[in-house]
Amino acid sequence: MKDNFFDKTFEELSGILSDFDPKPFRLDQVLRWVYVKGADDFSRMTNMPKELRGQLSDVLDLTPLRLLEEVESPDGTLKSLFQMTDGELIESVIIPEDGHKTLCASTQAGCGMGCSFCETATIGLKRNLSRGEILAQIVCAVRRLGNRLALRNLVFMGMGEPLLNMDALIGALEVIIDARGFDFSPRRITVSTCGWVPGIDRLGRENLGVNLAISLNAGDDETRNRIMPVNRKYPLKRLMKSIRGYPLHPRQRITFEYVLIDGVNDRIEDARRIVKLLRGIPAKVNVIAYNRTSAAWSRPDDRVMNRFQEILMSAGLLATVRKSRGGEIGAACGQLGARAAGGMNA
Ligand code: SF4
Predict the structure, then answer these.
(1) pTM over the 0.90 mark
(2) What CATH class is the domain 3-61?
(3) Is the shortest distance between the CB of 160 and ligand 1 below 6 Å?
(4) Tens digit of pLDDT for each residue in 218-261?
(5) Theoretical Cys-Cys bridge with 158: which of 50, 106, 272, 341, CB 3.0 to 4.6 Å?
(6) What's the pLDDT tens digit per position in 62-75?
(7) Where are the alpha helices (DSSP H) in the chain?
(8) Is 111 near ligand 1, meaning CB less than 6 Å away?
(9) What CATH number matches the domain at 66-329, 3.30.300.20, 3.40.350.10, 2.60.40.1120, 3.20.20.70?
(10) Residue-range domain boundaries for the chain
């Protein structure tokens, strides 16, 4: 069985290449074909000797993800369902925004965090993705869009809790940021967590400069315990201490995602608690309407959402009501269920 090309560090790739061809520039040639041009076959690398292309093709797999289904919503959001080599399924979503595209990538197959507003949670955790499986989602998006530069932002908000797959995530981020890899500015990358405190601390120590997003959803422990089990392990006081320690560049802000659920976390006092909680933090709050994945809950009406936003803004917080994208095809926040049998959760 061939190895996933994207699981190899540049050093490892260099070692493999030098076994076949000692010329030092070969590594840069291969990396350019794969990460810039999105080549999915060594035979396309026409500026390299045919024999070398054949040798590489025998040992390295450039297509470790098999596209099972692709669904596009009327707003242009594109959800892709992939099968990995062991049969497990993941989804990633390309979201069009103001003339550019954002890729929402997964870091785990399923998720074990149990957030009660989230479809992925219903699958449970199947397994962590390897760094190569994380990177392969980006290369699939580059191939789909035909150009690396068509992809502007990268958010790890797909299936799974990224900070519970830290080594693979850090390994992938190094290639994503590297000029010989995908060459993304760290400012264009966001890692989102439900509040896994040791992961926030480690990501801060790694000091990669990437943006941090927190799925917050409540300003008091009682409500947050109810909808996000992680809060019982790391309550708000502990979480906020960790967030305050995350290194920020000037003008960089922490993003707080707040999914508004009717009658659960949408009261005036909930908004006031958020104001108090985020005091002194360079913050941006994205208020998102709950995407119905459970019959028990629904989204509040627009009036309530606007009131919530106004309370935050009048206290000086930067707050947006984020337009949910891809709701019709089950690609919106909290809707990634990676269900192949019977189709995607459209
Ligand atoms: S919201 Fe994120 S962390 Fe929570 S269950 Fe869903 S995928 Fe997991």
Answers:
(1) yes
(2) mainly alpha
(3) yes
(4) 999 999 999 999 999 999 999 999 999 999 999 999 999 999 99
(5) 106
(6) 999 999 999 999 99
(7) 10-20, 26-31, 50-59, 131-145, 166-177, 197-206, 221-227, 230-233, 236-244, 268-277, 302-314
(8) yes
(9) 3.20.20.70
(10) 3-61, 66-329
